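Re: the 413-residue chain
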Amino acid sequence: MLKKVRLLSLVVLAVLLLSGSVFAQQKVVLNAMLGGEADYKPLVDLFNEQHPNIEVVLHPAPPTSVEKRDRFVTMFAAQDGGLDLLLTSLMQTAEYGASGWLEPLDGWVDADRIKTDTFDAYIEAAIWDGQLLGIPYSGDALHLYYRKDLLEEAGFDPPTTWDELIEQARQLQTSDIYGFVASWERGNQILCQWLMFAGSNGGQILDENGKVIVNSQANVEALEKMIEIVGEVAPRDVLTLTVDDARTVFTEGRAVFHINWDYVWGMCQDSRSKVVDKVGITVLPSFPGRDPVSILGGWKLSINKFSKNKEAAAEFLRWASSPEICTWFVLNTSQTSCNSIAMSDSEYVARDPEFIDALFNNYNNTISRPVIPEYGELVEIMSQAIFNALYGRETPKQALDKAAAQLESLLNY
């Protein structure tokens, strides 16, 4: 009897071991919604080639960031784990983090290495409540584009202060060419542009303890400088131009200076551009005695909190965030990287030294927009305040004092 029991036990054990072995060899399917297929499909294809036991299936992303957010919020609200891997905006970290929708990565990846390799502001924007909620991956920042042919003819070096920019723009503008153009439309764009001016004067919206300091003297001076630019060297249209409307004005050859995101450099070199080989790119101006700053955009790789395949998803993140793969990514796609090692790769830099040097410097000087769950409400409050000042309805001090009171109420101070 004991022999039969022992034999039966061995048979059961053998079956369990065999079934476990078979399960371990079964292919895990990860569903991913990342960015544009032209850039992220090659990354996914390379991963699948190197990981026979994991298959990442790439699903088309909605065409706009707003639609993508709506898709994610609907999914999260239903606690739907159908998508395992997500490319989420760095601006949505606090919103998703406060709701518990993204998997904290500190236990899944080498967070210390990632923080060391990544430009500081991008890491700051990916952390909520002390937890890393995504790996900053595809970078973006504001840059100063300028007509180098016009500056060279006038004997000017690129401006390093806002006052220099205004003076050069005043001298170089004509009836056909604006001195300055950018997108200062209501919403994220006007907030980013104002933060850039404020940051270059040492200003910010919240201090390190989360206290509202938006009505500081530095911030008032930043808003006054924007009013000066609109009054003297920029068309009133900057207050309504979209990002690409402003870009079009510049690539049509109708502006001396232009502030915009990474993508504009490629558009300047496009065959349809009227400023091919006439454009320079550099760090942004600042107030006297202050360091220049830029404002970050960009995206991070995250894991859906409701995913059933977190180990496999973490394997993708560990692989994708290695300096070797980040470097491969910038060499083989049109995207940039938040990884400083990849962005300083000699082969990559040699392809376009002027552009990559500007990217590296501005990524290194970026500051994050406030990482708070109430970011959307903050955008509305700040947009209204900035517009009230730019349209002359209130003085900069009055507008920012009102914004400070509204933000303190929003944040329950």
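Residues 2-25 form the longest helix (24 residues).
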